[in-house]
Amino acid sequence: MSEALYNAILVGDKNKAEEATKAALAAGVDPAELVTKFVTPAMEEVGKKFECNEYFVPELLIAQRAMKAAVALIGNSGESAGRVVIGTVHGDLHDIGKNLVAAMLQGCGFEVVDLGVDVSPEQFVEAAKQQDGTIVALSALLTTTMTVMKKVIEALVEAGVRDKAKVMIGGAPITQQYADEIGADGYSDNASAAVNIARGLVG
Ligand code: B12
Question: pLDDT averaged over consecutive 10-residue blocks of the chain (203 residues)?
Fold first, then answer.
């Protein structure tokens, strides 16, 4: 039903992505399925094209804009399964993976507060304080910035909110071992598994 959505994201056509999303939702396609079958694969393909120099930063950005437009529509159609505050840690500007995780969570019914990129530990703490049971989701793509994740956990402890919030982490250089080392509650190396982790943390 929504190859049109996949193609619109791949070529970065925001209007077509919106049209295709609306059409699919009107036809009763499951919102989560739209994300797993079309949005995520399209962004994965964009990532591959970027890596082999078929796409450059402008193509990457318009694809992301189309993806975000689609996800904004998909996200409005579900009931809240929990609250997630997500961001890429301080010093790091990579957001494609973070946006995919946010999209998947939103598409699967979570309320997602996206703090963007280059987010300081204090910003995560402030956002976590606003509601008990919040999942703080951290993304890092650089070996130099993954260490900030530990600082975020320390800041949560210092602010006295660590026991009221859960922390899950991810990004290319992150491993389960690193997650255990810094005391994170969950880790996944992809956006669909991130949803299961989040469900487990809420449960
Ligand atoms: C695209 C890209 C960029 C773009 C980013 C655009 C954007 N808006 O994101 C631009 C051109 C800006 C860029 C800049 C830089 N980049 Co860059 N970049 C990449 C590249 C090619 C792809 C990353 C990507 O988007 N992958 C696709 C997504 C879908 O995958 P992902 O991010 O891993 O996310 C998935 C999982 O990890 C997981 N996940 C991610 N986050 C989270 C969070 C949670 C909570 C969970 C549960 C899961 C999860 O789920 C996601 C979906 O499945 C990688 C190479 C690579 N193969 O990783 C280099 C790479 C990450 N970049 C690198 C570098 C060095 C840089 C620069 C320093 C380059 C420079 N000298 O200027 C700058 C740093 C800028 C900064 N301060 O952040 C290195 C990092 C090396 C290292 N080990 O530290 C890499 C690995 C390239 C390389 N081989 O050298 N980059």
Answer: 90 96 93 85 83 87 90 72 96 92 79 96 97 96 98 98 97 98 95 87 87
Residue ranges making up the domain that contains 15: 1-77
92 lines ligand 1 (CB under 6 A): yes
**Whether residue 41 is found in the same domain as residue 101:** no
Our answer on whether the CB atom of 42 is closer than 6 Å to any ligand 1 atom is no
Q: What is the pTM of this model?
A: 0.85
**Residue of the CA atom closest to atom 42 of ligand 1:** 170
Q: What is the CATH number of the domain that holds 138?
A: 3.40.50.280
- Here the contacts of 51-54 (C-beta below 8 Å, separation 24 or greater) are none
Which ligand 1 atom lies nearest to the CA of residue 95?
9
CA distance 167 to 37: 27
Look at residues 77, 94, 110 and tell me which one is the last residue of a structural domain.
77
Pick from 79, 146, 130: which is nearest to 138 by CA?
A: 146
Does one domain contain both 91 and 20?
no
CA-nearest residue, atom 7 of ligand 1: 94
